[in-house]
Description:
This protein is of the alpha/beta class and about 290 residues long. It is about 35% helix and about 20% strand. It has a single domain, classed as Vaccinia Virus protein VP39 (Rossmann fold, 3-Layer(aba) Sandwich), CATH 3.40.50.150. The strands form two sheets. The chain has an eight-stranded mixed β-sheet with strand order 5-4-1-6-7-9-8-10, sandwiched between helices. The site of S-adenosylmethionine (SAM) has 21 residues, from helix 1 and helix 6.
Amino acid sequence: MLSYRHSFHAGNFADVLKHIVQLEITVHLLKKNKPFDYIDTHAGAGMYDLKSYEASKLSEFKRGVGLLNSLDYPELTTYFELIESVNRIPGKLEHYPGSPYFTLSLMRSEDRANLYELHSKDYQLLKTLTAVDSRFEPAIQIHNVDGYVGMMGLLPPPSRRALILVDPSYEVKSEYQKMIDTVIKAHKKFATGIYAIWYPVVDRARITQIDNILYKSGIKDIQRFELDLSQDDEKGMTASGMWVINPPWGLLEKMKGVLPKLKRDLSPDTSDRSKASYRCEVLVSE
Ligand SMILES: C[S@@+](CC[C@H](N)C(=O)[O-])C[C@H]1O[C@@H](n2cnc3c(N)ncnc32)[C@H](O)[C@@H]1O
């Protein structure tokens, strides 16, 4: 039984970092005149109404994307333009796109997307969104099945170029192990894909454990981007990050510029700023 709904968290600080990294990878894949595949194992609803009961209950977006001024981020114009494109009144944040929306908006007709969403309501919302939006050019398939299983069946994709976004909600603790086991298996089938894996820091030991599994897996070329809003021993999700396997050239440099600004802008308040930090590093070299 799935209880997690991303609508309660849309546009929070974790979404901001995740979607910035996702878009950088998308833009990189678009540079070549060759098709690519986008596989989103945990796609969510694709679009979130920030005025809805769910989004306004915790108003996490107000402490996330709502704190950012696009003028301070000239290097992220695509990210802010896409957000602006789904909001009717300039400067008024009423909707926030989900991961499928960001990448689908940029993809070309020769590209291919496979999106997985298990929650029946979010699956329906995603289906409707992709059916009615004429801006989406690629061939899109939406599946109401387990994204881990679905992804494995698609690898290696015929294009041999892919962004694989793995964005679980980690509702159960065993999901960390399931995620990493699946990613390692997937990498064996398709070693050159770009895997972007999101993680929350609720218990640092758990993340260190996955780092160690990654080190020992033999997989090369892994980078980490993480934004820590408070210290590990505090309650709740203190930080969130992305592991990127086979990151595109230039991503590390770009994030070296972006992460200090996100730390500055997304820190809860001035007194807490000293507790905020970030990680932008090569976890395993090429
Ligand atoms: C963190 S949310 C996804 C957010 C989305 N990627 C975004 O950035 O907009 C995780 C989603 O995965 C769905 N989910 C959970 N387990 C799944 C599974 N095994 N396969 C596919 N979807 C799953 C949940 O219903 C939830 O909507």
